[in-house]
Amino acid sequence: MSYDVEEDEEDESEVPRLSFGNRLALSGVLSSGYRKLGMLIEHLETRTWEMQIMGGDQRITADWVLKEIDRFAQGLGKWLKVAGDDKAEILQHSIGSRPLTEHKTMVEFGSFVGYTATRMGRAVERSYEKGFAEGSILFEDSRLQGANRITSMEIDPVHACIARHVLDMSRLSHIVEVWIGQVKDLIPRLTEEHGDMSLNMVFMDQRGTTFHDDLSQLEELGLMFPNCRIVADNCVKPGSPVYCWHTTVSERYKTTNYSLNEFLESTIEDWQVVCDYLGPLAGGHQRPMPWEEAGDGGEPWRSYPIRDL
Ligand SMILES: C[S@@+](CC[C@H](N)C(=O)[O-])C[C@H]1O[C@@H](n2cnc3c(N)ncnc32)[C@H](O)[C@@H]1O
Q1: pLDDT one-digit tens code per residue, 121-141
Q2: pLDDT of residue 286
Q3: I need a surface site. Which of 111, 160, 168, 204 has the fewest CB within 10 A?
Q4: Model's pTM, two decimal places?
Q5: If pLDDT is split at 50, 70 and 90, which confidence band does 31 have?
């Protein structure tokens, strides 16, 4: 198909030639990963439009958006690296187990398309509805007086824009905010915006090899309230060995390592590591990092048998 602009006889050299034929229009510029995300948005927009013309506007909810993303991901070549299926169950339970006391917030590291951000936002919204109906949550508390209840951090601006759009579609933008940047640079902003000990839930889903550094920054800045729940995904695939070692041996954490299947992949095993932070004064001395403990003559720490944790 060609979209050549008709040639203008007066000034031929100045006429821009817009042609898909010569591949000017983005093809080759977008990676296949981004193209798949474009297809996801197209799927969601088309399904939304279909619902609207059928008069089902009120059925477009966060749960519906999550189901549509699941449906899209089941298509051939459309798998998405999101925490769905069994992984979502653990996350959902963790959110439900943390009370929404005033001035407590939750954070996600790695938004991607906003799938878990939507799940977390919906879980919080459900708690508001329940708490407001029972009278245990005041309406003003539910909005934290203007501040968001969940912050999701994302390094890739394209992913961040998609996540914001998905949250808008799910009508959860008043609960979840997406911040663009690297987790390590954005963590200090949590202290500025929400204050010390403001976190009661953390979902780690960025890059496994940085989990332990990001966790120690949270500890150093005193951001986690005692009993803060930390759920870390993809701990075996691609893997976060130092984080698994630290959370398992440190006396500051009560940790359970769950073995489960990857989203929509019944033959691929992965771990979600769930810890409760017991507070800065918990336990005796802090154990050194594995490479410090192994020393020069010791067994290289990389050969530490992760399955013995
Ligand atoms: C596995 S995906 C997150 C999936 C999402 N939590 C879900 O389940 O719907 C990982 C995301 O983390 C982002 N990411 C990786 N390293 C990061 C970092 N250091 N800071 C912020 N985002 C990061 C990636 O761009 C990617 O979008």
Answers
A1: 998 888 778 877 888 777 665
A2: 67
A3: 168
A4: 0.83
A5: confident
**Residue to substitute in 90, 106, 156, 178 for testing ligand 1 pocket (most ligand atoms within 8 angstroms of CB):** 156
**Into which CATH architecture does domain 33-308 fall?**
3-Layer(aba) Sandwich (3.40)
What pLDDT, in 10s, does the model give residues 182-204? 999 999 999 999 899 999 999 99
Residues within 6 Å of ligand 1 by CB: 81-83, 108, 110, 112, 115-116, 153-156, 159, 182-183, 205-207, 210
3-state secondary structure the chain: CCCCCCCCCCCHHHCCCCCCCCCCCCCCCCCHHHHHHHHHHHHHHHHHHHHHHCCCHHHCCHHHHHHHHHHHHCCCCCCCCCCCHHHHHHHHHHHHCCCCCCCCEEEEECCCCCHHHHHHHHHHHHHHHHHHHHCCCCHHHHCHHHCCCEEEEECCHHHHHHHHHHHHHCCCCCCEEEEECCHHHHHHHHHHHHCCCCEEEEEECCCHHHHHHHHHHHHHCCCEEEEEEEEECCHHHHHCHHHHHHHHHCCCEEEEEEEEEECCEEEEEEEEEEEEECCCCCCCCCCCCHHHHHCCCCCCHHHCCHHHC
- Enumerate the domain spans of the chain: 1-30, 33-308
The rounded Å distance from CA 207 to ligand 1 centre is 7
